[in-house]
Amino acid sequence: MKNATDLFFDAFANKNRFNILMQLRNKEMCAGDLQKTLGVEQTNLSHDLKCLLNCKFISVRKEGRKRVYKINNETNELVDEVAKHVKNYETYLKKCGILKEEKNGRI
Amino acid sequence: MKNATDLFFDAFANKNRFNILMQLRNKEMCAGDLQKTLGVEQTNLSHDLKCLLNCKFISVRKEGRKRVYKINNETNELVDEVAKHVKNYETYLKKCGILKEEKNGRI
DNA sequence: TTTATATATGATAAAAATTTCATATAACGA
DNA sequence: TCGTTATATGAAATTTTTATCATATATAAA
Questions:
Q1: Please, which of A66, B66, B82, B86 could form a disulfide with B30 given CB 3.0 to 4.6 Å?
Q2: Residue B106 belongs to some domain of the structure
Q3: Nearest of B21, B76, B27 to residue B52 by alpha carbon
């Protein structure tokens, strides 16, 4: 059985899911808007939103036939910390050479 | 070409590499001791240490025929933040259901 | 200067993650 | 209640990541 750290990174460090968390920083959005902004498949987005909901990184409320998603404060802060670290180490990350070169990419 | 966030998570969210960073929190260790403590293959450990070095998450100094590794302060702090978040969300992560069930696991 | 220990490298094999596909459900408006 | 929009589900296919293997280098001790 996986431990909590494994599960955490599976949820949080996933390209599409982290992109969602980045979008939701400091603002709420419905699934349709996330889809347009991120340019992802509807079905993938839905899978990913469910995962983030299950982990309680985000919450949701209904508004007509739309679902409006919101990131929680602690997760918002952690996303900020990570973004800061990425910025500080960007130069070295790009020169690493061991990390793979191709992938669809986060925003 | 991958962006910095992709590269960051490739380096940081990797099971073996994060285990190394956890071990190096607040203490220096040589490769051999990391190997014993983590119970990993020598060759995998070496690949992972090189990656962490390239990204400047850790540094190294020679001591006889050993290499002694040290985590940097910023990365140490980020590891702490993540560990805290994992602890806070552990219950939900384990009930997620979407995240995969089997893997070798972080420590 | 040979042997043993400590660590590194690169290619391929194995395992795991992500995407796609086919389809389902839920809410609203005509 | 029928069609349309918005979102969800599960399984299979594809892609990516991680582990293994064979071997190399570097330092020190005998």
A1: B66
A2: no
A3: B21
Q: Which of B57, B80, B96 to mutate to test the interface with A (most CBs of A within 10 A)?
A: B96
Say yes or no to pLDDT of A106 above 60: no
Q: What is the CA angle A44-A50-A51, rounded to 5?
A: 90
pTM of whole model > 0.85? yes
Protein side of the strand D interface (CB < 7 A)? A 30-32, 35, 42-43, 45-47, 49-50, 60, 65-67, 100, 102-104; B 10, 14-16, 41, 43-44, 47, 62, 64-65, 104
B-contacting residues of A 38-67, CB under 8 Å?
47, 50-51, 54-57
pLDDT of A100 reads: 65
pLDDT at B102 over 90: no
What is the per-residue DSSP string for B12-50? HS-HHHHHHHHHHTTS-EEHHHHHHHHT--HHHHHHHHH
Compute the distance between CA of residue A37 and CA of residue A91 in angstroms, rounded to an integer: 27
Could you give the number of structural domains in chain A?
A: 1
Containing H/E element for A73? helix A73-95
Q: Which domain holds residue A57?
A: 4-95
Question: Does B33 have pLDDT greater than 70?
Answer: yes
Asked if the structure places residue A102 within a domain, the reply is: no
Could you tell me if residue A59 is inside a domain?
A: yes
